[in-house]
Amino acid sequence: MKKEEIHLGDIPRILFGQTPPVFLIEVFMRTVIIYIILLFVVKWMGKRMNGQLTIMELAVILTLGAIVSVPMQMPDRGILQGVILLVIAGLFQRGITLLGVRKGRMEDLIMGKCSLLVEDGILKLDQMEKDRITRQQVFEQLRTQKIFNLGKVDRVYLEACGIFSVLKAPQFRPGLPITPPDDGDIFDKQKPVFFEDKDDNQLQACCNCGYVKPAKDQSKCRICGDNEWVKAIG
Predict the structure, then answer these.
(1) For 78-221, where are the alpha helices, taking DSSP H only?
(2) pTM beyond 0.70
(3) Residue 194 CB neighbours (<10 A)
């Protein structure tokens, strides 16, 4: 657009840009389609992608950022389009939130569900793979709460907003050490646990899922089928 064509008194251009008013209907359709697609794309990318925001909140923020940029910077685009888009996005967010409050299934579909990653000191590997969460990501969250033994964990949840919730076990339980793999000094100082306090029957933990059994049992892990073990600690 040439600078000679820009005039402060050109109200139709300021409101509608260089498009006919009927284009606003197309703008509405574009916003609805892009918003829905964006919602599912963000959900597909995984919970940890969005940090402490819900999937819907993150989608709204991204949509608003795209909405306001064009009418603010492009002289051939009307601000009325941007206003309409902002109103539509706001109504979408409020409407979907209200629908989620009234219908639990809709809330699960849009915002996602809480995932169980650790149960009774054992990693839920199938669920972790589905949520694309690694063992070290779980261990990192536990270490920030001064937990260095997987057996001390009763439950670990991955919330819909992407944060971890940790519930400690109410009683003593041996488990897999979760110290950093490169910190051998701390690992060597950790005391092993023995079954029924017998020195010849040390307990071992599966390196893959955390399942604990006596070291003299040479069978594979009954939880995950792995056969790599390490001494269990308390």
Answers:
(1) 79-102, 104-111, 125-131, 135-143, 184-189
(2) no
(3) 18
Find out whether 160 and 47 touch, Cβ atoms under 8 Å.
Answer: yes
Domains of the chain, start order: 3-111 (no CATH), 115-231 (3.30.240.20)
Return the half-sphere exposure (C-beta side, CA atoms, 13 A cut-off) of residue 147.
24
How many angstroms separate the CA atoms of 46 and 228, rounded? 29
pLDDT over threshold 70, residue 42: no
Instruction: Label residue 232 by pLDDT band (50, 70, 90).
Output: confident
pLDDT band for position 208 (50/70/90)? Answer: very high
pLDDT at 75 over 80: no
* DSSP 8-class letter at 145: T
Whole-number Å distance between alpha carbons of 141 and 162: 12
Q: What are residue 220's phi and psi, to 5 degrees?
A: -70, 165
Does residue 153 register a pLDDT over 80? Answer: yes
Q: Output phi, psi for 66, to 5 deg.
A: -70, -35
First to last CA, the chain: 72
**Could you tell me the two tokens for 123?**
């990693």
Helices (H) and strands (E) in the chain, counts: 8, 7
